[in-house]
Design goal:
The complex is a heterodimer. Chain A is mostly helical. Chain A has a single domain, classed as Orthogonal Bundle (MetI-like fold). Chain A is 65% helix and 1% strand. Chain A contains 13 helices and 2 strands. Chain A has a two-stranded antiparallel ribbon with strand order 1-2. In chain A, strand 1 and strand 2 form a beta hairpin. In chain A, helix 7 packs across helix 9 and helix 8 packs across helix 9. The longest helix of chain A is centred in the N-terminal third of the chain and has 37 residues. Chain A is flat, with a radius of gyration of 32 Å. The two termini of chain A are 57 Å apart. Chain B is of the alpha/beta class. In chain B, strand 1 and strand 2 form a beta hairpin. The chains are: A mainly alpha, B alpha/beta. Chain B: Keywords: ATP-binding, Nucleotide-binding, Translocase, Transport. Chain B: InterPro entries: AAA+_ATPase (IPR003593), ABC_transporter-like_ATP-bd (IPR003439), ABC_transporter-like_CS (IPR017871), P-loop_NTPase (IPR027417), PstB-like (IPR005670). Chain B: It comes from Pseudosporangium ferrugineum.
Chain lengths: 361, 258
């Protein structure tokens, strides 16, 4: 044997020291290694000897500090932005000669600034809500098709195309909406006005075309990919055993989806819709290019006109003076508040039935 | 209520892979039949063929005849959902719907069948939960999530959900393999009780369980991996466990398999 203990000597033993490493780390139950075994002279890995002291500066504490700093930075940035916005907005708001919340026009650059957020906020919400009403049912149908109906060969490339749609810059959507899509929308608006003009939303005497309807439809196309790919993701995560349970109870495919897939995916779908709404509310250039830029509060969606907070900022920032910029920043604060409220409402909906989700295996 | 199941020359395929070969057996009404055998021998495939659940997997198909009271469930004009309503199934892992309460889980099948009347649903929920020996444990918290129960309770909830639609046959695919001995005993007691109303087929890896609960036992085996599973022996449980006709069966139940 000598310095090189043969394999067979260890192999037939089974108990003491299959390798010296194991023997070194084991407790007192294992017989001592022969002193001539070189490897046995290493410091033991798991037991025996004095415990090593703790390192004062380790990866552990370093990473902990790094991640804490990153977390704190978010708060600092948010507070800094808020302070900046408020400090710019307050002088403009105090110079305003009209009520900011209810006035329906935007003349902040005059000697006596007059401006109000009412029409802009209304247009923002109306265009976003219509966009979601159009986009969400279609997005859910596409998502279910991709996750449960389409054969895999078709689902993968189609999903990729949907994601590609999300990559189109919004200015492209805006130009397309203004130069190409506005014509069919105008024709459709005239048709709606002719046959459904007795409904206030489709009333009016024209001109039609660059309306809330056009802006909303362009927005709908823009939020469609977000809602679709997130919903598809959650639908695919439905546990197979729950789908089987529904099928074994005699459910058809659609009944199975209603019983197992949709309830399971509901929180995710709500989150997806809220992300889409966030995009729609904040969308700037596409609406700036497609809306008719009027300051009215009207539920008529086909008559040329409409405006939104973000579009108004893009359209008027260039010729704004100091007060004008402050006024626009104030409008940005309102948009921020609206988005915040929407997000909190979504969280409330998601958390309401939390126990039903968290207990799910 | 309970019906006779007759399989004749049933072979099942997943794509080009033949999972079970030429299985023929008859299951009498209101009996418990246990299917035993090593893993991968086709017990579960056969069980899932009985209520056409194996079709859920793409590429799965079957040859041969499977009849319930002389009606071939694979006839082209048979509605597969009707078959599954008639032949309920309990799965290996408890799978209550996670978004539903205990009550909603119990009546999920009835709601799928279009029952909307509250009083009917209430009665059915109580009846099925009582039948599943679960009522006393959950009657005060019917609106709590079904997934919040213990594993054994969840499995009994799944049994309640299955029997609430009043099937003729209940298939159980290793219903106790994820449960502790006490919960297992509760499910076995339940099976004796349900035998009065349903025909039960159970797949199990636990031979003591097969010996305890079943009237008849079928032993499945494969020659080697990649070969289709075959039914080696099918007889009274008493006979299989005391005096099996086949050497293979004897080897398996005495633990000398493989």
């Amino acid at each position: 044997m000598g310095d090189f203990p043969s394999r067979s000597a260890n192999a037939n033993a089974g108990g003491p020291g299959v390798t010296s490493r194991h023997a070194g780390s084991a407790g007192p139950g294992v017989p001592p290694i022969p002193p001539d075994d070189r490897l046995g002279n290493r410091p033991p890995l798991g037991g025996g000897g004095a415990l090593p002291t703790k390192a004062r500066f380790s990866m552990e504490s370093g990473f902990r500090g790094l991640s804490t700093a990153a977390g704190a930075m978010v708060l600092v940035i948010i507070v800094a932005i808020a302070i900046f916005l408020v400090s710019k907005a307050v002088p403009a708001l105090s110079a305003n000669t009209e009520n900011f919340l209810t006035y329906k026009a935007w003349f902040p650059n005059e000697a006596e600034p007059r401006f109000g957020i009412a029409a802009l906020a209304f247009g923002t919400l109306l265009s976003s809500v219509i966009a979601l009403l159009v986009a969400v049912p279609i997005a859910l149908a596409i998502a279910l098709f991709l996750s449960h109906y389409a054969p895999k060969r078709l689902a993968t490339p189609l999903g990729f195309v949907i994601d590609l749609l999300a990559a189109v810059p919004s200015v492209v959507f805006g130009l397309w909406g203004r130069d190409v899509f506005s014509q069919p929308v105008q024709d459709f608006s005239v048709w709606l006005n002719k046959y459904f003009g007795w409904l206030p939303v489709f009333g009016g005497d024209g001109p039609f075309g660059r309306s809330i309807l056009l802006g909303s439809l362009v927005l709908a196309i823009m939020v469609l990919p977000i809602v679709t790919s997130l919903s598809r993701e959650v639908f695919q995560q439905t546990p197979g055993m729950n789908e089987e349970a529904a099928l074994a109870l005699g459910a058809t495919k659609w009944e199975m989806i209603r019983t197992a897939v949709l309830p399971y995916g509901k929180p995710g779908v709500i989150a997806a819709v809220m992300l889409g709404l966030g995009r729609a509310l904040g969308e700037t250039i596409a609406l700036a290019l497609t809306l008719g830029t009027t300051f009215t509060i009207s539920f008529n969606i086909i008559q040329s006109g409409g405006n939104s907070i973000a579009a108004n900022i893009a359209n008027t920032f260039g010729e704004a003076n100091a007060t004008g910029r402050g006024a626009l920043i104030a409008s940005g604060l309102v948009l921020f508040a609206i988005t915040l409220v929407v997000n909190m409402a979504a969280r409330a909906i998601i958390y309401r039935r939390r126990e039903f989700r968290d207990s799910a295996a | 209520m309970a019906k006779r199941i007759e399989a004749s020359n049933v072979s099942s395929y997943y794509g080009s892979f033949k999972a079970i070969d030429n299985i023929s057996m008859t299951v009498e009404p209101k009996t418990i039949t246990a299917l035993i055998g090593p893993s991968g021998c086709g017990k579960s495939t056969f069980l899932r063929s009985v209520n056409r659940m194996h079709e859920v997997l793409p590429g799965a198909r079957i040859e041969g005849r499977l009849t319930i009271d002389d009606q071939n469930i694979y006839d082209s004009d048979v509605d597969v959902t009707a078959v599954r309503r008639m032949i309920g199934m309990v799965f290996q892992r408890p799978n209550p719907f996670p978004t539903m309460s205990i009550y909603e889980n119990a009546v999920a099948g009835l709601k799928l069948n279009g029952v909307r009347k509250k009083s009917l649903l209430d009665d059915a929920a109580e009846k099925s939960l009582r039948s599943a020996n679960l009522w006393d444990e959950v009657k005060d918290r019917l609106n709590r999530p079904g997934a919040g129960l213990s594993g054994g309770q969840q499995q009994r909830l799944c049994i309640a959900r299955t029997i609430a639609v009043e099937p003729q046959v209940v298939l159980m695919d290793e219903p106790c393999s994820a449960l502790d001995p006490i919960s297992t005993l509760a499910i076995e007691d339940l099976m004796f009780k349900l035998k009065d109303r349903f025909t039960i087929i159970i797949v199990t890896h636990n031979m003591q369980q097969a010996a305890r609960v079943s009237d008849k036992t079928g032993f499945f085996s494969i020659d080697k991996t990649g070969e289709p599973g075959r039914l080696i022996e099918y007889d009274d449980t008493q006979k299989i466990f005391s005096n099996p006709a086949q050497k293979k069966t004897e080897d398996y139940i005495t633990g000398r398999f493989g």
